[in-house]
Amino acid sequence: MTGVMRRFSAALAAAAMAVSIVPFADISAYAEYAVTHPEGFVYADGSKFMCDGSPYYYGGTNCYYLTYKSKSEVKNVFDDASKMGLKVIRIWGNLDVHQP
Q: Lower CB count within 10 Å: N or C terminus of the chain?
């Protein structure tokens, strides 16, 4: 390999390394896109539920059938759950494809 070829190869390798590093040069610039949650909003953090930065534990029930009941029947379920002190009702979202 001639001296010119070596210098060209070295310059090409250096340029390739520089270009590959550029996207990672300022990761902190992406911090502004961090997810924020409204106050009182329950969200998942790994395997935990969190609310306002603290672990969130709840008692609830599963009501898979709510997606195909009438509004009055759903209201009755919510009223009964409220009387029992339940604050969470889990429903299945995959059953809502029959009608919008």
A: C
